[in-house]
Amino acid sequence: MADKTKRVIGKGDSRYWLQPGKLLNDARSPHLSCRIQARGRRTSFPLNTSNKEAAAQKAAGIYTDVIALGLEGALAKHKPETMTRPKFATIGALIREVGSTAGFKAITFATYARCLRHLVAEIEEVGDQPKLDEHGKPLKDRRGRIIYQSRRHSAGNRAWIAAVDALPLSTLSAVAIQKWKVGYIDRAGNAPDARKRAENTAASILRNARSLFAEKALEHSRSCLILPQPLPFVGVQLPKKSSTAYQSKIDAATLIESARAELEREPFKIFCLGLICGLRKREIDLLMWAQVDFAKAVVRIERTEFFAPKSEDSVGEVDLDPALIVLLRSWKEKKTGVFVIESTRPVRLEVGRTTYRCQPYFKTLYAWLRKHGITARKPLHELRKELGAILASTQGIFAAQSVLRHAQISTTAAYYTDKKKRITAGLGALLASGPGQCGGSEVVSAKTLI
Fold first, then answer.
1. What CA dihedral angle connects 128, 130, 131 and 137, to 10 degrees?
2. Comparing 180 with 7, which gets the higher pLDDT?
3. Measured between alpha carbons, how far is 348 from 358 in angstroms, rounded to an integer?
4. Rounded to whole angstroms, how far apart are CA atoms 21 and 26?
């Protein structure tokens, strides 16, 4: 029986362009042309020949270049006349220039750049890039399909970054950003909680990407870059941020008792420094014994050779409970290095992303906390919030601000405090003796209750 399966011819094959309607005639020229669509943009390319076979070969080559180089790269190669007009700076040029002049912290700048690339890639639908042979042509499998590089590997990630960085800043029009924002939130579906999470994530991506266009970022770069006017993000409204007020679901006494019985030493150390001292994850990871002052019974959060505080307001001293001092002394007697949390993993300061020496112990503690009902996305930070709620409830919001080391009291009030004592008017006691009674035989009217 004859094989009836029809083989699909790809656009990188000249036979595709020899099909009816694929090569176009221009009434103003005897030469043929072709149209190629990439990422929603349909572009015409002149083929400069009236010979169909030669034109089909050229069209297949142009399509291959669009895949390998991107649309802008293919235009520069095959329609250079369109590229002679003044060009806006590319995404990569902006990132490089701002990175070398603005003076952002490395981790902060890496976050800004990552969010900008993420936004641009989704607007332009930049996916994984094809693998290329020694001639710069896309590699194909036995079926003629292009082989793509995975972004899980460094080569694939570099190719993806190069493709995004080659795009012009004009990609970031207000309309394109608005469409992305609406589409991103809509993809979350109709469930209110899922939509709210999507709104928060979209707001975070836009806020970080927008930071590369702030006055501080561009102060020393404007003369070196051709920037769109108005600048990207002008007129774009960020999704409203939902309330981040902490709502306590933790019984601290019960949790501490369980931690003492169930956690091994290093995860237990992290637990204590998070809940009892309110230290942040990075502060715990790089806390050195030199920062623990047993004479004054404090832990000093300060700049060290390995650690830079989140901000100058994060620098300070945290008082230690007597029982925790006893534990710290016992831990120090068994220390093998300069850090409070023992780990065989080295400190990595050269990377753009935040990495942690104690990541295996953090993972162990996270699993344990989730097992005990703490399901927040950042379970360790939930311990810090719980401490803030306890302090605000028992000693006042200014005490909580001092221990948590917030620059503004409004931050403490908005994010980290929750009442830990019951607040009622006591009117429920009027119902305790049954209908129409109060403390025996007194009848209480509705007006009296009000």
1. -160
2. 180
3. 12
4. 13
